[in-house]
Design goal:
Layout (H helix, E strand, L loop, with lengths): L5 H14 L8 H11 L5 H33 L1
Helix pairs in contact: 1-3, 2-3
Length: 77
């Protein structure tokens, strides 16, 4: 098996998140299925690494969403 570059895994995960936001969740096992559905991955290890980063990325984006919504509410008052 060749090298697995973190940059590529992150890039793929971000692309999946941008294209399929409505299907991506903060649940790892569901994200594994999303990756399997949309990407032809040559090994389980790569699929799992993409799904793991996708899960962390989705959690980070959802927390940023709540923070930005909170800021908007505070400014309007």
């Amino acid at each position: 098996m060749g090298n697995i570059y973190t940059r590529d895994i992150k890039r793929i995960a971000v692309e999946i998140y941008e294209k399929y936001k409505d299907e991506v969740t903060t649940d790892y096992s569901k994200n594994k299925e999303v990756v399997k559905k949309y990407i032809d991955v040559y090994s389980k290890k790569v699929r799992n690494r993409i799904a793991g980063y996708l899960t962390r990325y989705a959690k980070r984006m959802s927390s940023q969403k709540f923070v930005s919504e909170g800021e908007v509410v505070e400014e309007s008052e």
